[in-house]
Design brief:
With 223 residues, the protein is an alpha/beta fold. Helix content is 36%, strand content 17%. The protein has a single domain, classed as Nucleotidyltransferase, domain 5, CATH 3.30.420. A hairpin with a 5-residue loop joins strand 3 and strand 4.
Amino acid sequence: MVDTNADEPKTRAGTRLVFLDTETTGLDFVRHQLTEVAWIVRFEDGREETRCFVPEHPLDGADETALELTHYHERIAPKPRSPASEWLVQFLDDAQRAVLVGAVPDFDARHLEMAAARIQRTPTWDHHLLDGETFALPLISDAPEAPRSLAKTCRALGIPHDKDQAHGALYDAQQAMRVFDRVHELLAALRASGGPLPPPVPRNGRDEHGQPETGQGSTDSTT
């Protein structure tokens, strides 16, 4: 799927950004597989293109909790699947010297590195990874703490968050982009006016599903 947006540049020329999310059959890098990969590449001139693919994958050893979380059978399974020679080559081209931005992007990047190795390709992106949840933390926390989930980060920044679309790769990549842009908008406004920061958000509480939210990295990798 390709969607081109020719909006005005939102970042300085020379910086390519890839807002990324992946869904998988679980959290184990050896046993579990990519089921969905989506990204928005923001080119150096500000142009944006959106991609979303369902890689070829088996379900052997899949974690049923992960499948339920991503609504795998309803949302992912019916979609056509793409070989790595299509989706991964496209990603590596888009990610040339780019900074990857996401919610716990090291999880996504590791899966992509392993996928690239399987087709004898190497990562093309910058070694710096930008975690949007960490990036936003100073604006929504009054103390050094663990980052919030993507859902809680969005809500704290005034970004609508749809729990029914969450855990879809494209939606989560878009939400990571909105967090990134909102942080820059708030900082620009603060520099211009000296206005107050947003109110702090407690670390512990309940997530959008009513479950305890601990803020642990292993949990946030799927939120």
